[in-house]
Request: fold
Amino acid sequence: MLEQTDDYKNILLSNAPLMDTRAPIEFIQGSFPTASNLPLMNDEERAAVGTCYKKKGQAAAIKLGHQLVSGETKQARLEAWLSYIKANPKGYLYCFRGGMRSQLVQEWLHQAGVDYPRIKGGYKALRQFLIQNTEQSLQALPLLILGGMTGCGKTEILSQLSNSIDLEGHAYHRGSSFGRHAKPQPSQINFENNLSIDLLKKRQQGAKQLILEDEGHIIGRCALPMKLVKQMKLAKLVWLEAPLEERIERVLKDYVINLQQEFINLQGEDKGKEAFAEHLLASLNRITKRLGMERYQQLQQLMQAALNKTDLSTSLGIHREWIRLLLESYYDPMYQYQRKKKASQIIYHGRAEEVSAFLRQ
Reply:
């Protein structure tokens, strides 16, 4: 009997390597942080087998699958699996439900002289475990929310705390109209899975409370679990304060200097700068209605003037101008309104060192 396991908790806590034998299209829709896609069938083969199953039944579909993955194709995939297992001997393999695909891969590996454990219930069982874990974790751990104006350094504070959850980090997005990175966000399923694994690890480490940044229900395109959204709205709030000049410099570093470099690293100097410029202008355009046409045009002209400079170092002064104007006329009033609205929930406020010390208590 080939080995199966349903010890989902320890698999996820140990960051065990996972060999995902589903088709690439399934893997892209959602998987797990330590998973690598080494499919039994590619997308076209899977689609052909699925069509055959609908028209002719299971037996014919299985026969077709064996025909499609045979000879040199089978050997190439077997060698890929063996190479992965050699590099990751303490891992596991799975398919969608822990059924025929992963069983077949496990049998072929066994015939090749290698035994590799299979996850009982496959991807679906692991996914269901994580959904339940999110519910359980949010029931077990009270929340404390860290708020503050744009650029005050909330993420930096969270990174210093052992019981914090970086929602923006999991979403790979900073949460505002300007918040995307050069690379795309994770799929919704991957966001939820990674968040749940983080929650699982926090509970395992003995956390008694979770500290999160104040966020809306969506970060970029990643939606927070509804139970989390509801609890965040009711949670106590700590407000981080920072002077305007400090916040301008932090926004400049994060949203201009570092972000432009992200685009350059991904696309090269010229295309990267062009993509970065398109991102900034498109981000501003998305909030035109809320800014009003006069303010939008003022900001757009400043932004374009900064982007027209060939060297970033010569444009920083102009970038500071539009950042200041955007904070003072748009973001700050919005956050001031939110602070006033949540005044009864605020249990502490102060500068970075004071807030950091309070949150460590």
